[in-house]
Amino acid sequence: MSEQANLSPTLVLGAGAWGTALAMAMARNGHETWLWGRDKQHYLQMQTSRENAKYLPGIAFPDALSVVDDVHKAIQSCGHVLISVPSKAFVESLQMIKPMLAAKTPVSWATKGLAPDTGELLYDVARSALGESHPLAVISGPSFAAEVAANLPTAFTVASEDGDFAKQLAGLFHSPTLRVYTTYDVLGVQIGGTVKNVLAISAGISDGLGYGANARAALITRGMAEIRRLAAALGAETETLFGLSGIGDLILTCTDDQSRNRQLGLAIGRGLSVDDAVKFVGKTVEGMDAAREVMLRARQADIEMPIVEQVCKILFEGYDPRESVQALLCREQKAELTPPVN
Length: 342
Ligand SMILES: NC(=O)C1=CN([C@@H]2O[C@H](COP(=O)(O)OP(=O)(O)OC[C@H]3O[C@@H](n4cnc5c(N)ncnc54)[C@H](O)[C@@H]3O)[C@@H](O)[C@H]2O)C=CC1
Ligand SMILES: O=C(CO)COP(=O)(O)O
Known about the structure:
This protein has helices at about 15-30, 40-50, 70-75, 90-95, 120-130, 145-150, 165-175, 185-210, 215-235, 240, 245-255, 260-270, 275-280, 285-300, 305-315, 320-330, and strands at about 10-15, 35, 65, 80-85, 105-110, 135-140, 155-160, 180-185. The protein is an alpha/beta fold. Strand 2 (about 35), helix 2 and strand 3 (about 65) form a beta-alpha-beta unit. It is globular and about 60 Å long. The structure holds 1,4-dihydronicotinamide adenine dinucleotide and 1,3-dihydroxyacetonephosphate. 1,4-dihydronicotinamide adenine dinucleotide binds near residues 13 and 87.
């Protein structure tokens, strides 16, 4: 993509919390931004009230943000599409835009997760669905939608193999309250953003059981070791995992109750069944699907991810969370670091 290409207007697909917050951030910078959600009633509400009362109540849309109804027309005339739907709707969104997308229109997404069932990285899914002509990018990092919408200081990362696209996309968001970094390591950014959701469930379970700060710190640190193992096996840069989309997002979601993944874990740890905990949270919890898919990728790569494995056992096999903690503690003694072999 050339440095002069124009990304404006951006069409944001998915009027949930994160799509809306990202649309507001771009529009606040004066970039024309179109927001589309699939629900007609929701569209009418946003159109009339100039806010997204369902997900981000009380925060007015900037003037440069328009809510659009005719998605087909919008896809044909936008300069860039940003997808912000849950991972289970990602493929469906690509299929919807594909027939209408102009040949080289850049596509980015803020979805965190893997493709359902196959565990494919969304970058690979998007590349094979859309072909080679579209610049692609992933947005990820420690960023709760409500804080971005409220204009609180935030930093996140844009990853693309196309450096010009990464720079221009980052530029749409960059502001005195939003620092946006770029990277070429799309693999590392996606792995960090996916696995941290599973680990946030584990941290929530531990806190819900009443275990202390030591246990939480151990889960974060050993969870990071699991992310590193998977990332290394798939060919990501280790450095990425020490950045915003790795350790940054892991800390955020494991420690703050705004995280829906952590909320699910807390509810399970406090004694709700998994089904009741899902109902209780009542929001998008990406770590549920991700747990299964991450485990699939770990088995394919023949690496150990014991915390993710225990989360899967609790979520899908009816394990008692206390038994899972015991299983983790009773693993054979291990070295954290062994001396280099000369
Ligand atoms: N909320 C947050 O703070 C952040 C969320 N994310 C990620 O962004 C993605 C979206 O999350 P949220 O916006 O928070 O979820 P949300 O639950 O607030 O909203 C999801 C939206 O997607 C819509 N949707 C579902 N299927 C759709 C389809 N097939 N076509 C069009 N729209 C569809 C829903 O109607 C809903 O409006 C997730 O992968 C999440 O992990 C990433 C960073 C921050
Ligand atoms: O990814 C997020 C913040 O970076 C949002 O986390 P939750 O999906 O757990 O709420």
